[in-house]
Design brief:
Helix content: 25-40%
Structural class: alpha+beta
Largest sheet: 7 strands, antiparallel
Strand order of the largest sheet: 2-1-7-6-5-4-3
Shape: globular
CATH architecture of the largest domain: 3-Layer(aba) Sandwich
CATH topology of the largest domain: Trna Endonuclease, Chain: A, domain 1
Radius of gyration: 25 Å
Number of strands: 25
Amino acid sequence: MAQIVESVAERSASTAPQLASQIEEFLTASPKSVVLEDGRILFDMQVARYSLSSEQGRCMLHLWSGDRNLVRTVTAVRIRKNSLRLEVRRFGQSKPQAMELVADRDRRPPGTRQTTRTKYLRMLERVSTAYFPGYTLDGLTTAADLEHSFGPAYARGTLRKGNAAWAVIGINEQESPAIIDGILTIGILWLAHCRATGSGNRHVEGLKIIVPAGTGQNTQSRMRWLRTSVAQWELFELDERSERLMPLDWQDSGNLHVELVHAFQPEATLERMAAAVDSVLNMLSPGLRRVTELRPRGPNEIALLLHGLEYARIRHGYAAGSFSRQDQVTFGAGANETGLTSATEDLFRELTQKLFEHRHAGGSMRDPLYRLQPERWLESALRSEISEIEPALRTEFLYSQVPAFSAGDRAMLDLLTVNQSGRLVVMELKADDDLHLPVQALDYWARVRQLQREGAFQPHGYFPGTELSPLPPILYLVAPALRIHPSTDTVLRHLSPEIPWELIGLNEGWRRDRKVILRKRSAG
C-alpha cells in the first residue's frame, strides 16, 4: 500500500502548463524555500526571483539573484513531502539533471540533528569546566520546552558557584544562520526562567551566550542595547574544532556600518512613467484596477500592489542592445517575475484576475494567495490610516520599506516617519506571532539611531524642511493583539532604557478595518 501511495504522490505532470502550475503553487505556498542542485543551495527564494513560461510546449524556469542566473527546461515534476523534485535540462544538453525545491533548508534527518546536539552538549560541558574554573555546569539540556519557547537547537544550563549562578545558552555550528541569530531572544527568556524557578538563596547574576566561531557579530551589536541594571551579559564564540572559547566585548562593538539610499520624488516617477502605467491598468479588470496601489520603488521603477502584495512592476531602462530607453513590464506575485509581452498578455490577465478573486479581506486562510506576505498587507493598510493608529504621527512623511545596509546585509525598515515634535519614529510590523519581534525591531531601531547621529537623513533627501529632534527614535511594534507572542513583554523589559518603545495590538479582523485594542509603553 505504501508503494502505491508513493507512486501516486510522485507522478509527474504531462504538459508544460501543468509543470509550470505545480512549480508556481509550491513557490507561492513556500516563500522561504530554497533551490538545490547537486545538494548545494543555489537560491534562497526569500531574496531570489524567478519566472516561468510554458510557450512552444516547453516549461522554462528562470532563476536569478544578485550573484547567480540560470535557465532550465523542466521536463518532469515529482511531488514529495515538503519538496518538489524537478527533472531539468540545460540549454543545448539532452541529458537530464535533478533540481529540488525544498520548503525547509535544514534537510538533516531528525536523528542526525539530535546526534549533533548531543555531541555539542558534551563539548559544552568540557569547555565550561576548562574556561570557568570553580563553577559547576548543571541541568544542561536541549530538550524542547514549548511552554516556555525553548527549542531543541539551544543548549541551556546554569553555571553555579556557591550562592552565585549564571544562566548559560549555546548553539552548535550546524544550525541555520536564522536559528543562531535567534539566540539572544531565547537567552533572555532562559535567564528570566532561571531566575523565576531558582532557589531563593542563589542569585542568577546574568547570562553567558556561546555562539559558533565567526557568527557573533549580530548578537554582539544587539547586546549593546540591553539593560545592564537588571543583569550582567557576556558573549563568547566557540571554535568547535579546537574547543577554544573566545570572549567578545559587546560593549565595544563599534558603530554599525550603515548606508542610506537617497530619497527620491515619487510624484516625478509616476509622471514620467504615466503612459506605461495607464497601459497596464487598462489591461486589468475594473475591480482590480480600483484597489490596485501604485508604489514608486525608485526613480525608475513602479510597483503595482494588491493589499501589499506586488503583482507587477514597471521599470524604465535601456532596451536590450540599444541606448534608447523604454518601459519594461514584468508580472508575478511574490518572487515570480515574468515579462509582459503580446505572448503573455492572456497569462497576465488570468493570473491577476485569480489574485483579485482570492486576495481580499473576506478570503480564506487556507488560500496561499491570501496568506502571502501578511506583513506587507498590514503595512499597506496602515500607510493609508496611520494617523488613526497614532494621531501624533505626521502623515506627509511616511517612508515605506526604506533600504539601509549593515555589515553587508540588506535591511528594509518597515515604516519610518516623525511625530509632531520632529522625533523620528521606527515601526516594525508583524501579522503573525513571532517571539523575535523585539530583537528584530531593535536591529532597525539601531540602524536609524546610527543614521540619526551621523545626520544622514536630510542630506539624503528625507524629511525636507523639518527640524528633526535629537532625541532617540521611538520604536513602535505593531501586530494583531492575539498574535503578540507571550514572551514579548519579557524581552522588552530587558532592553536598554535608551530605547523608548510602544507596543500596539490591533483587532484580529485588521484586514477589514483597524482598531487599537492594546497599547503598552516603556517605563523609561
